[in-house]
Write a structure and sequence with these properties.
This protein has 11 helices and 4 strands. By secondary structure, it is mainly alpha-helical. Strands 1-2-4-3 form a 4-stranded mixed beta sheet, with helices on both faces. A hairpin with a 7-residue loop joins β3 and β4. α1 (6-42) packs across α2 and α3 (105-118) crosses α5. It is elongated and about 75 Å long.
């Protein structure tokens, strides 16, 4: 369905989530069949009474179907863990920790005012003690949503720029982008795990394990099936359109009425957004530059394209690119309340936001 407005865009994300869940058993069966073929071809398992290669393929298919209920059960457990523990998993992967209002009242006031303007519950806030500039939203449902920012983002962005970034991440929550991304990350995690199992079996495959004729063919077919499953995973990843970043930028402008701040924030983030995290989690980030294969499998459009869209459709203006100087990370892992001389808050005058 082509999105023609915000509501249809949200519907599209809901449909994508349903399709991902419905397609999972098919993808799982392909992976299990690949594992079974590799087991047979490598000699780790034997097909009783099989006298031809065709009978071995049939045996592998029957064994896959028989093991499917157990695999689906394991997958359901995985989904339950991901549903209730996705934020903990993401926190462990990124080093994020929650902060209270008393730790950073300015940041909380900015986010709370944006949420009040949309009549929605304020997500929890988290901070990563890292000098690079990035942010992301996470969560699957109301009451679980969270927005995480890096210490570098707080140090380098002024009030308006920080508000624009919060508006961007809040738009991901409003549009349900974040839910679709997390479901896709769960898929990718399972696929990666099975792919590693297959790779290890191929690595440890010895020439004396199975000298039967056709064993290598079974392994090659199994490897091809695993590759197809991996390709489907890439398709799933690409199905979560990169348009979401353009729409989140536009949503930020709608919330803040300040396209210049979003442009300036993107300029500062550009080239300073690297964070060590699993690939699946990096898809959630405000910026995730991937240049491999000409950016074909990138989860984010180039920042220059996002800025151009803000200029063309949001009425923004490009200022001279600000210079970002990475600030040292405080030795303490806890968030430090900003003071009167703390970076971008230095010239702050009290207003309705705090």
């Amino acid at each position: 369905m082509q999105a023609v407005g915000l509501q249809t865009y949200i519907w599209n994300n809901n449909i994508r989530s349903i399709v991902l869940l419905a397609g999972f058993p098919v993808l799982l069966m392909v992976l299990l069949y690949a594992v079974q073929l590799v087991l047979l071809g490598s000699g780790f398992e034997r097909a009783p009474y099989a006298t031809s290669m065709g009978e071995e393929f049939s045996y592998a298919l029957v064994a896959t179907i028989q093991s499917l209920p157990l695999a689906i059960g394991v997958a359901i457990i995985w989904f339950v863990i991901a549903y209730f523990g996705n934020q903990t998993i993401i926190d462990l992967a990124t080093g994020a920790s929650p902060v209270e209002r008393k730790d950073n009242p300015e940041l909380y006031n900015l986010l709370e005012n944006l949420c009040i303007s949309r009549g929605m519950k304020t997500p929890t806030l988290r901070i990563i003690e890292d000098p690079d500039l990035n942010a992301f939203a996470s969560g699957l449902h109301e009451g679980q949503f969270s927005i995480t920012v890096t210490r570098g983002l707080l140090e380098e962005l002024d009030r308006d720029e920080l508000e624009a970034v919060l508006g961007h991440e809040l738009t991901h929550i409003i549009n349900r982008d974040v839910r679709t991304m997390i479901i896709a990350a769960v898929f990718a995690g399972i696929i990666s795990l099975v792919a590693q199992v297959i790779a290890r079996m191929l690595w440890f495959r010895g020439g004396d394990r199975d000298d039967r004729r056709g064993g290598g063919v079974l392994v090659l077919v199994g490897f091809a099936a695993a590759a197809i499953a991996g390709l489907l995973a890439v398709v799933i990843r690409l199905a979560i359109s990169r348009q979401r970043e353009f729409i989140a930028d536009a949503g930020s402008v709608e919330l803040t009425k300040n396209p210049d701040a979003m442009i300036s924030a993107l300029q500062k983030v550009d080239g300073h957004a690297h964070l060590d995290a699993p690939e699946e989690v990096r898809g959630l980030f405000l910026e995730n530059r991937e240049d491999g294969l000409f950016g074909l499998f990138s989860t984010h459009p180039p920042i220059e394209d996002r800025i151009a869209a803000l200029v063309r459709y949001g009425g923004g203006r490009v200022q001279e690119a600000p210079v970002v100087v990475a600030a040292p990370v405080p030795s303490s892992a806890t968030a430090v309340p900003p003071t009167a001389d703390a970076g971008p808050w230095e010239n702050h005058k009290p207003g309705p936001w705090g």
